[in-house]
Write a structure and sequence with these properties.
Chain A: Residues 4-399 form the FAD-dependent oxidoreductase 2 FAD-binding domain. The structure holds two protein chains of two kinds. In chain A, 29% of the residues lie in helices and 24% in strands. Chain A is of the alpha/beta class. Chain A has two domains: 2-95 and 257-412, 3-Layer(bba) Sandwich (FAD/NAD(P)-binding domain); 126-246, Rossmann fold (3-Layer(aba) Sandwich), CATH 3.40.50. Chain B is 53% helix and 8% strand. Classes of the chains: A alpha/beta, B alpha/beta.
């Protein structure tokens, strides 16, 4: 099977890369070992939230102080600045609308009730300009009876700090009685499916209006519109006051919708998405990757002119650590990380953990190395790159989106 | 540096401890979406397995609501064999005895032999409304279901009479696992396969004696019989693949999936010697074309708009690309891919009265998509999907092999390799 480009990894990074390449007419395939981490999407993409322990106001400006090995520095801050405008446009062409700019973080209210700086927020959610104030004084926090994945007390406690008076109300509706019979399956996605399939929204909106009488704003879990965005929009139109949706515990409803829309966009552009398959091995000759072999296709090899590795970090097994070894499991690529396992961990859990910075080693053009030699047509993008502690910095999505766009540009040159 | 292979320590056979509780599988379970009585793949699979290991009394008979579609396994980012865990738990712990109805539905071989012998009588009788009402009342086979028609002459009989002899005229050879559907209900599909393979330069042979793959026996709890048939089939495949160096191809995605994966995973029947060379005909053809060893020539006047439905077991195999690529090679085909969703039938599952509503609920989004399309017909690799779609929508369903056979210019194709 022959493609122009093959991308290993079907998450945010792989899909961004695939869409950009397919938009330029490349015949692409994505191989994904299963559904991706977009299913845990909070609703916001961070670019840079904290540097050296300080909260970032202007991410582009603050990037200058990052280490030279950081992916943003390696892409170049000028390039990052340009690609950061391109990214939301690419997402919008897939049907995903975002609020935010790269030169000024805005804030979102987390389900823990605190304000967190971020870059892009999907239009289900409410962006805030000021981290020290909540625009309304009286809030009704509503939840579905039996829905355990939305922790209303945390939100109430958080809002107290903004001097917001709030009340928590649980309510039941007969449409949700069926899924309540099975308490372990009363999840955000199952609630969303009830809205998607039936006529629950009308009665629900009436109930929300009733319960929020006397309040200025309604806070609800983001369980609207799994397969279609319309439900979330319709809800906001039917409720007679502002609605602030907050993320519930995953699986994330806006996240799954995003994954579906990104994959659809990729396929509509002629891309092939192989779900539930694993790359087993590759043929490397004269420092070029000629073909790869997968579980499902066995002896039928997948060939391409260029390949992109966007297989994720430890969680997605893009890199693997055993007791004594750190390695890249697909092609045995060189790793940027300590060989001495005593140095992997900092004994203080909340410190900047060294292993979080590990990833696949690349040359200055983001091409992978093996045994110290560059593989000329194998590019690396996303969190498998290493060089950053995405968790500490609040930079995970930014690195995924922007290194992917950068790599796609290198490939298109 | 030599490539390392990811082999974590202490992994159980069905790797339930690899589950990180991310709940992604529950999003893609077609049953959970319509029937809340089913505990869902996470609870039934890896979560339940931990409890069952402590005490088998934690086994929940509601696990029989699992259709074994394996869509949870395709979705799982950590490769947990969720579907296998659930099916193995049923095999190990279920106290429910198969009913007479289950035995009738599961024994496709015996029922097929009887029914095809008396096809002219059986076909009109099982199609009668009063008969379907009785089957519904007595056997709990839902009255909405219409049994697939039985053929008067079985495929094996036809093959021996009309096709067997000339297969030896070819230089290259394959064996064909036709499965119960082709043999008892729809021999034409087998004839279409022979037409294409012969045009491609391959003689097609039957196995020494094939038995039903046993998928329906497994899902109806008739494990001993399924295991016996699995062992028999593996031996028959060995004679062809190892003995005669003839790969085995099939036209049924579920049969081939069962033989390749369910035999070792669920029945403990080893198949390493035959697994790689047991595959679908569309994959076999694709490989030949992809590697430049075969070129198919199509008729100029064949023009159809076709929608392809991905059966669950094709999704699990990851092989729909072969069938769809072949269809797209036909110049006159206007191709449309349907969203990959379960049709709800899951073999014998949807025939059972207690599952009828779930089956139709599961399939509804697919049916709506099909009825809303302006295609001439639907293409799919699975026979039970075909029955379900034909019963639930206004469209007819064809197998990709039959479509290829209709569009193929046999003489022009043969000329290419004869020259």
């Amino acid at each position: 099977m022959k493609f122009d480009n093959i991308i290993i990894g079907g998450g945010l990074s792989g899909l961004t890369c695939g869409i950009k390449l397919a938009e330029q007419g490349r015949k692409c395939a994505i191989i994904s070992s299963g559904q991706s981490a977009i299913h845990f999407f909070s609703g916001s993409f961070d670019l840079l939230g904290r540097v050296h322990g300080e909260e970032v106001v202007n991410p582009i400006e603050s990037m200058a102080s990052l280490a030279a090995t950081h992916p943003y520095q390696r892409v170049g801050v000028d390039n990052i600045s340009r690609l950061a405008t391109e990214a939301p446009e690419l997402l919008e062409r897939a049907g995903l609308k975002f609020f935010g700019i790269a030169t000024k973080n805005h804030f979102v209210l987390t389900p823990m009730g605190i304000m967190k700086p971020t870059w892009l927020t999907i239009d289900d959610f409410t962006p805030f300009e000021n981290k020290n104030a909540f625009p309304w004084k009286k809030a009704a926090i509503l939840n579905f009876s039996g829905f355990l994945d939305f922790h209303t007390l945390f939100i109430q406690d958080g809002l107290k700090k903004f001097n917001v008076e709030s009340q928590i109300k649980n309510f039941a509706m007969k449409e949700f009685e069926a899924i309540r019979r099975n308490p372990s399956e009363m999840r955000s996605t199952n609630i969303a499916k009830v809205f998607d399939q039936g006529n629950a929204l009308e009665e629900f909106a009436q109930k929300v209006n009733q319960l929020s009488e006397g309040f200025e704003v309604v806070i609800l879990p983001a369980v609207f519109g799994l397969f279609t965005k319309n439900i979330a929009t319709a809800l906001k139109a039917k409720v007679n006051k502002p609605v602030v949706l907050l993320p519930a515990i995953p699986p994330s409803v806006p996240g799954i919708r995003s994954q579906i829309l990104l994959r659809k966009r990729f396929e509509a552009l002629g891309g092939t998405y192989f779900l539930g398959d694993n790359v087993k091995d590759g043929v490397i000759e004269n420092n070029k990757l000629l073909a790869i072999f997968t579980n499902n296709h066995a002896d039928i090899k997948l060939e391409a002119d260029q390949f992109i590795l966007a297989s994720g970090s430890f969680y997605s097994k893009g890199i693997v650590a055993t007791r004594d070894k750190l390695y890249e499991p697909i092609l045995g690529l060189d790793i940027d990380g300590d060989t001495d396992n005593n140095k992997w961990l900092d004994s203080k859990f909340f410190n900047d953990q060294p292993y979080m910075h590990y990833g696949v080693k690349t040359d200055s053009n983001f091409r992978a190395l093996r045994n110290g030699k560059t593989i000329e047509n194998l590019y690396v993008a996303g969190s498998v790159l290493g060089g950053a502690n995405a968790l500490k910095e609040g930079s995970g999505a930014g690195i995924s989106l922007l290194t992917s766009l950068h790599v796609a540009e290198q490939l298109l040159k | 540096m030599k490539k390392e292979i990811f082999e974590p320590f202490n992994i159980s056979d069905n790797n339930f401890e690899q589950c990180v509780k991310c709940t992604i599988c529950t999003v893609y379970c077609p049953v959970l979406e319509v029937n809340p009585d089913y505990p869902g793949p996470k609870q039934s699979g890896p979560d339940g397995e931990r409890l069952r290991l402590k005490d088998p009394n934690f086994f929940d008979e509601a696990l029989s609501l699992c259709m074994n579609c394996k869509r949870c396994e395709v979705a799982c980012p950590h490769g947990v064999k969720i579907g296998d865990i659930i099916q193995l738990a049923r095999i190990k712990h279920s106290k429910k005895k198969p009913k007479l109805r289950d035995m009738i539905l599961a024994n496709t071989d015996i029922v097929g032999t009887m029914a095809s012998t008396f096809a002219p009588i059986v076909n009109p009788i099982v199609a009668l409304k009063p008969v379907r009402q009785i089957m519904d009342g007595v056997l709990k086979i839902d009255h909405h279901r219409i049994f697939p028609k039985y053929a008067g002459m079985r495929f094996e009989t036809w093959y021996k009479r009309y096709a067997a002899k000339k297969q030896n005229d070819f230089k290259k050879h394959v064996s064909y696992f036709h499965g119960c559907y082709v043999n008892y209900n729809f021999p034409q599909q087998g004839k279409d396969l022979i037409k294409i393979m012969n045009a491609a330069g391959y003689g097609v042979h039957l196995l020494e004696k094939e038995k039903c793959c046993g998928v329906a026996l497994i899902s109806n709890g008739l494990i001993n019989q399924a295991t016996k048939q699995a062992r028999h089939n593996v031996e028959a495949f060995k004679k062809s693949i190892v003995g005669l160096k003839r790969p085995v191809i099939s036209t049924s995605s579920t049969c081939i999936f069962t033989i390749r994966d369910e035999y070792p995973h669920l029945l403990g029947v080893k198949n390493e010697e035959i697994r790689d060379e047991s595959e679908l005909a569309t994959r076999f053809l694709f490989r030949l074309i992809d590697s430049g060893d075969l070129k198919l020539v199509f008729k100029k006047d064949y023009k159809k708009r076709i929608a392809y439905h991905t059966p669950c077991h094709m999704e699990k195999l990851g092989w729909s690309i072969y069938s769809t690529s072949l269809l797209k090679m036909i110049p006159g085909v206007d191709f449309m891919a349907l969203e990959s969703r379960c049709c709800g039938i899951a073999g014998t599952y949807g025939f059972k009265k207690e599952n009828y509503e779930t089956a139709q609920g599961v399939g509804k989004p697919l049916f709506d998509q099909i009825d809303g399309s302006d295609v001439d017909f639907v293409a799919t690799d699975c026979e039970t999907c075909k029955w379900q779609i034909e019963m639930s929508t206004s469209k007819k369903v064809e197998h990709p092999i039959s479509i290829l056979a209709a569009a193929l210019d046999v003489e022009a194709t043969m000329k290419l390799w004869q020259e």
